[in-house]
Amino acid sequence: MRFITIDKKNWAKGIGKSRETYRLFGPVKDKNGCLIKPLENDTLPDMTYPDTVMSAKSVLFPQTEKMLFTSLDESQKDHHIMKRTATDYTPRAVVGIRPYDAKAMELVKLNFDTVDYRDPYWCDAYDATTFIGLGINTPGPFDFSTSAGSGPFGEDGLDVLLADLDDTYLAKVLTDKGDAFIDACGFYTTADETESQMLLDILRKQAEKNIVSHMDTTRLKEKTILELYEAPFWEDISFSCINCGTCTFVCPTCWCFDIQDETKQNISDRIRNWDTCMSPLFTMHSTGHNPRGTKTQRVRQRFMHKLKYFLDKYDQGIMCVGCGRCVKSCPVNIDIREVCNIMNSYEKQD
Amino acid sequence: MNTCINKIRELSFELLDKGEVEKVIGFANGTIPMATSPIAITSTKDIETLVFNSTCGLNLANYIRQHKGKIAVIAKGCDTRNIVTHIVENQVQRDQLYIIGVPCNGMIDKTKIASLFEDDIIEFSEDGNALTVKSALKEETLNKTDYLRQNCRLCLHKNPVIYDALAADLVEEQTLESPYPDVKKIEAMTPDTKWQHFQDLTKNCIRCYACRNACPLCYCPTCFVDESGPQWVGKGQNTTDVNTFHFLRAFHCAGRCTDCGACVEACPMDINVRDFTRKLNKDVFDLFGWEAGLDITKRPPLDAYSPDDPDDFIK
Amino acid sequence: MENPYMPYPVRIDDIEIATEDKSLKTFKFIFLNKEDEKNFSYQAGQFAELSIPGVGEIPIGIASSPVEKGFVKFTVFRAGVVTSHLHNMKKGDIMGIRGPLGNWYPWDKLENKNVVIIGGGFAFTTLRSSIIYMLDPANRGKFKNIDVVYGARSPGMLLYREELFEWEKRDDINMHITVDGTDDPNWGYHTGFVPQIVEQNAPKADEETYAIICGPPIMIKFTQPSLTALGYKEHQIIMSLENRMKCGIGMCGRCNIGKELVCKDGPVFTLEELNQTPKEY
Fold it and tell me: Tell me: the pLDDT tens digits for B76-133?
């Protein structure tokens, strides 16, 4: 671990230099809001944005991703034998990722990198990626990251944490990957470790103090799954839901996907697409039977997964980092903070 | 519109109190500024939760299907037109509904207001035509009429077209010299520009289907994009598949769309999907003189045969 | 397995119509690469994704038994897009198999125990695998009494008929074959629904007896009380579940019942485990 001071005058040059080694991703303003995108040509990451509409998850987990392919042409050797699709896993870096989005990567990793199986697409992308986070000096009104195991200066999942000090960035280099990126940028002005850490702590405390949005998760663990599952409040919570996929698609921790075969001429690709537990198709059996056939069941699934199943399964906290995107984007304003508080304070009536 | 809520609550109270309806479907305050959320009230003690203001941009006709008993619904002009469409299309029976009509002065364009601020809005209030909007950095006082949604600015049916009671006095309807300025602008584009316009329009679509699911017309048990045998459309982010969804959905709404704007209101990516539906609304108006949801006795023109059909092929 | 999404290439070696209404066919597959067969080492009760390039994948229980070498077998009901396509494929066609996936019947726990196998309709595939496994001379000594209750709508809808009648003749397995109804005057086995046959013929439970159930939800629902009446405790009732699946390796998120993923933590659960979890199957 070390600290580096980056004069903002040198920022563009350093980022430019890093392109010799890295493919860069970062926040880019669009007419429809800010999104994490590949930083093409000389585009710099927009380090002033309040937040991106979509999280950074697509850098490792594109909404549509080719996995395998084969030829269906029987005159070809190896027809119908699937091969892995070639994907570029040369080093990439996400510059300006929010700390909660980086934390989300660590939660998603629990799903894709397990004792039994390693999802090679997600994991290879993860291994190739360096996360350069930007601490949030003034958290927005929807940021409840401190209630969700992250925070405006959280370090989980980051390789470098940047703190914006007006004329300079203070960079806390957290991992070897981070070291390599900072070197590739040619940033070398070392800052005093003790002083820098003190400064960072002050910034963190100030930022955390400015967080106005909270939820209480402290009692979720002690309740049983069935107690919460069978609780009477789900019907009311789900009434307004229109069962679109917005909450799941904007969520940095939602990882569910569908697998589809698509054929063009004689080449067939096996593709995965983001999927959503809000869709009735998600669980529909081929017989027509659907174990989560109603909207109430699906809304319950989403919140139970995030706030209870995940918590119980991994013992790594809840599957939410408090970014507030679902709260902001939900067309009918179903608010996870409210739902969480209802679940957390629920007492079963005997 | 601030006073109509008292009347809405009064009417709702009476209906629930006398047991005339099982529930009242209306709006409740949201948890964040400029947000309201559809809600069903079943008890008179919850009557104060009902609100009505310029942020109630969703269409409550989307919530009136598949209830067992009689329900009351709070309905703006466009909502009532979709209720008419629902009745015509047998999605609900007229006698199942108690319609509390709200003469409407338009809903606000939340995206346009948000774009005035660099940071998130933390407070919103309205008083008549005056909107007060606050972020951590600044406070703005705005004229509501300058920040109406585009569909509301072009609205020709602010008053409910069908109702059992009114929550306020009827408002004056506007007449527009050119009701489709937006469509005309696109129609005037060269094919290349037009193509690019629609490519740009859908390029950020994430296929969450919020537009479809917020739309009261989209009640098909299985939407064509979800059909698996045969599967008509790919489910990924391929541009052709994304556009196919939008084109076909719009066509399916032709002659039925009331331009309520719920699709745009719901879209998390701020895509003006009305660019598709509006063109079809205009065509149906030009060809058949038809506006959707005005007459409980008539089926939409693409759903009916008439000997004076303007197209030759049918004769 | 380096890439858990990569199917092993296989050739369809044989296709057999399994029921009189032709809704089920048994497919015998040979691995194109000999070493893949070794990698596809499985236990009775596991499933695999049958993978048809250009069409998709479908999770199916493995019907062949670990003691049968040189091939793998699956009996497939024609239901959706992938299975319909599979039913139209022919001998010699190349496709893929991905697996083995999921857990299996708890063979360690079942050693030195009485085992009652209860199956209905076309959910007899992994049970066939299990019976062949238990009856193998190398394994038969590991288990005490074996009882099998298997029912179908009619005699022609019973799967693996020849094997059933062979087992019927043996004295180291008690077969209770039944059909809902038949107009065959020579039908020499039971007539009646599975729950009723279980109640009348299955052994009473003691500490040493376990029941494995696999069948349509309605059969499972009505068989549970029969087993309870015979004294089976929740932990002695072992069930195999089905849910919609895609990845088969616990990642795509759709098949969960509570925090358990049917594809990876299951498909085999005891009733005791299932009673702790939402019944979303």
Answer: 999 999 999 999 999 999 999 999 999 999 999 999 999 999 889 999 999 999 999 9
Coil/strand/helix, residue A117: coil
Specify the number of domains making up chain C. Answer: 2
| Interface touch A64/B236, C-beta < 8 Å | yes
In a domain, C275, yes or no: no
B229 to chain A, any CB pair closer than 8 A? The answer is no
Structure tokens at A45: 């990451």
Token representation of residue C168: 């019927």
If asked whether residues A157 and A250 sit together in one domain, one would say: no
Asked if A244 lies within 8 A of B30 by C-beta distance, the reply is no
- Contact of A91 with A21, CB cutoff 8 Å: yes
- Provide the residue range defining the domain that includes A311: 225-258+275-344
The Cα–Cα gap between A46 and A26 comes to 7
CA closest to C79 among chain B residues: B229
DSSP state of C215: S
- Helices B274-288, B191-202: inter-axial angle, 10-degree rounding: 130
B42 close to A (CB below 8 A): no
**Domain CATH code at residue C26:** 2.40.30.10
Same domain, A136 and A93: yes
ipTM over the 0.90 cut-off: yes
pTM of the model: 0.95
In a domain? residue A220 = no
Identify whether A76 is part of a domain: no
Q: What CATH code is carried by the domain that includes residue C158?
A: 3.40.50.80
User: Which is nearest to B256 in space by CA: B277, B229, B231, B235?
Assistant: B277
Residue range C147-205, pLDDT digits in tens: 999 999 999 999 999 999 999 999 999 999 999 999 999 998 999 999 999 999 999 99
In a domain, C201, yes or no: yes
Residue C123, domain extent:
107-240
The neighbour count for residue A222, using CB atoms within 10 Å, is 8
Give yes or no for a contact between B281 and B258, defined as CB atoms under 8 angstroms apart. Answer: no
